[in-house]
Amino acid sequence: MKKLERNLSVVIILLCCVHFRVQSYHEVEDGISRFHFPEGFLFGTSTSSFQRNLSVVIILLCCVHFRVQSYHEVEDGISRFHFPEGFLFGTSTSSFQIEGAPFEDGKGLSNWDVFSHTPGKIKNDENADIADDHYS
Length: 136
What we know:
Elements: H1 2-21, H2 56-67, H3 95-98, H4 111-116
Helix pairs in contact: 1-2
InterPro entries: GH, GH_1_N_CS, Glyco_hydro_1
Family: Belongs to the glycosyl hydrolase 1 family.
Protein name: Beta-glucosidase 18
């Protein structure tokens, strides 16, 4: 009986994992959606009284763990596979965004410092006098 109960626990955990891996109530990761099934098709699950001994904590941990998006996906379902092979993601920055404080530590004004200090050139007249304080 213990072995059967253990096997059923594994099955329940696996079913729980599959269930909570579903991206939304009608769409799963591989693109299968509710619209792939005939109208009126009913999805369902079941349980029995002797399975209730399974720890609620284990089920909750399982649900939370498998609900977390994988590292290459974001909430809205965009993943690396939506981009062509060889597509490179990139980021950039400039010293203006990082350094700020043009008159400290022997630094001087850049062209952008002059431009950003001219009233009306930048929205809200913001500048980088205080930026990320990268070197602090």
